[in-house]
Each structure stands twice: as C-alpha cells, then as structure tokens.
Amino acid sequence: MISQLMVIGCYVFIAVLLLVAIKYSSLSRLLKSVIVIITAVFYLISWLAIERLLGWATPATLPEAFRVHWIHIQEPNKIREEPGSLYYWISSIDDANLQITPPRAYYRPWTVEDAEAAQAAKQRLEAGEILNGRISYNVLGSDARETNKETRTQGQAAEAEEERRPSFEFLTVAPASLPEKINPIQ
What we know:
Layout: H1 2-23, H2 29-53, E1 65-74, E2 85-92, E3 104-109, H3 112-126, E4 131-136, H4 142-149, H5 157-164, E5 167-172
Antiparallel strand pairs: 1-2, 1-4, 2-3, 4-5
Helix pairs in contact: 1-2
C-alpha cells in the first residue's frame, strides 16, 4: 500500500510541475490544453499497466532448471470461454541444485500434456517430495520431425508451433548427503 501511495505522490508531483510550467509559458491555450489531456491519458495508461503487474505471474519463459515450490492448475471454463492456465511458483537453481533466485510465479497456457504433468507433480509435492524441474525440447525426436516438415501444408502450422513448445520434466530431489561425523577423541 505504501508503494502505491508513493507512485500516486510521484504522479501528483509531476502533474503539479507540468501545470506550473504551462501556466507561466507563452504557449497558446489550445496547445496547453492538449498537453494536459495527453499527460492525463498517459497517467491513466501507465497506472493500469502497473496495476496489472503488481503480484501477478509473469508469462516469461521459465528457467532451464528450477526448484518447484507449488503448482496451481486452473482448468478451462467453456461456459465463460476462459482458456485455462497453469501457474508455477519456482526458483532458479544452479548445477549443484541450489536455489539462486527467490521464488517467482510463472504463467503458462493450459494444454492437456502440461496439465497432466503439472497434476502429477502437484500430487508429488502434496506427498512431501521436493521437486526440481527442467525444460525439455524433445531433441531426441527431432530427426522424425525434420522428415515430416517437408510434407506439411499451411493448415498444419499450428502443429509445427506445438512441436517447438517446450515440455517440462519434474524430478525428485535426492536427500542431502552429509559428510560422516568423526568421533571425538576420548
């Protein structure tokens, strides 16, 4: 709430500076009015854009390797014509499976394959497993796709787009291995 008040305060401060500058300028009244209206429209547009960003999941690409904290599946709703979505709360991990970023929410469009994988991973999380994930681009099957590319028509462009879409693989994290303790000298 404080950050929203700070943003509003900045908008008001800039508007006051603009009004003072316009009052003492020698521009025509029509040009001054246009400047004030354009500024007000920009404030409205930027406020609506910023408001959509506050706390919402990002549609950016997921990191190559990540730790899964939670998954939320929103099924498609045909009555309201909502397509459905998958939300992942994840952290990036390094080669040693250590978290290198704080958790962040990611949004992915709902597909049957991704929803099934997400549901299986969510059940494993609910069972107490710690999961890592990684993006798989189905590289092993690329030779078969190359031969099929030549026989495609324009109506099959959606299939080509679907083949390039990455899928996710969820892996159970092994328990941490601790070094053996040495008995103290007695």
